[in-house]
Amino acid sequence: MGRVTARRRAQHMTADTAVARPETLVVEEPLEIRVNGAPITVTMRTPGSDVELAQGFLLTEGVIGDRGDVLAARYCKGAGPDNLNTYNVLDVRLAQNVPAPDVDVTRNFYTTSSCGVCGKASLEAVQLSSRHGPGDDPTTVTADTLSALPARLHKAQKVFASTGGLHGAALFDADGTMLAVREDVGRHNAVDKVIGWAVEHGRIPLAGTVLLVSGRASFELTQKAVMAGVPVLAAVSAPSSLAVDLASQSGLTLVAFLRGESMNVYTRPDRITR
């Protein structure tokens, strides 16, 4: 398995001095995800939890619905004479009754869900492909519980503490119990890893949970929450307009600017109690 951090030398400068010293950086490497041997996508990620990452990605893209749709997930052998695992190519084998995805459709949908360029078409695509929409989830969360979550996520981000270069995502029960936390150089990868954890542990749909992200609430992250059946998505930074639109249409509670005791609740405020 690849390393999560690496050391590089840097020239540290202040107004009075310049000192050469080693710095700890987060590792960024490509991961090619294949389905039944066919390449689906390549994502730049921090090594670790790659099976969770692949399963979370496939669930949020509508390829699988739960762990039962996956037969196996294995690293692929390299092309060199030693034929060792590369740990940068992962093949997911689907169960016999699960149709393989259309590669072109998957690539195109992933692109639009990242940048939100298609607007209404992207919203409709999520509505049509979601198997676990959160609209009917009766979960409620207290404002005090939400307010305490960012500090708990920050404390759990061990690699961020040494590098300052990672996004974090954490899954909580409605009472604030932390279920899983993952870090990655890509914010979407961190969320996929958390959702992949839920896939692996038979927790899909993620009813009665709160998904917290360390950055902003983009359309892409909102889409992933909807696809996994998360009723409450919270972000410490701002949401995008398309994220709010998708949350509104899907019945997802979207909380942003979650800082201290202050927060903005953009959709389904009935789930947040005082």
UniProtKB/TrEMBL annotation:
<keyword id="KW-0963">Cytoplasm</keyword>
<comment type="function">
    <text>Required for formate dehydrogenase (FDH) activity. Acts as a sulfur carrier protein that transfers sulfur from IscS to the molybdenum cofactor prior to its insertion into FDH.</text>
</comment>
<comment type="similarity">
    <text>Belongs to the FdhD family.</text>
</comment>
<feature type="active site" description="Cysteine persulfide intermediate">
    <location>
        <position position="115"/>
    </location>
</feature>
<dbReference type="GO" id="GO:0006777">
    <property type="term" value="P:Mo-molybdopterin cofactor biosynthetic process"/>
</dbReference>
<dbReference type="GO" id="GO:0005737">
    <property type="term" value="C:cytoplasm"/>
</dbReference>
<dbReference type="Pfam" id="PF02634">
    <property type="entry name" value="FdhD-NarQ"/>
</dbReference>
<dbReference type="GO" id="GO:0016783">
    <property type="term" value="F:sulfurtransferase activity"/>
</dbReference>
<dbReference type="GO" id="GO:0097163">
    <property type="term" value="F:sulfur carrier activity"/>
</dbReference>
<keyword id="KW-0501">Molybdenum cofactor biosynthesis</keyword>
<dbReference type="InterPro" id="IPR016193">
    <property type="entry name" value="Cytidine_deaminase-like"/>
</dbReference>
<keyword id="KW-0808">Transferase</keyword>
<protein>
    <recommendedName>
        <fullName>Sulfur carrier protein FdhD</fullName>
    </recommendedName>
</protein>
<dbReference type="InterPro" id="IPR003786">
    <property type="entry name" value="FdhD"/>
</dbReference>
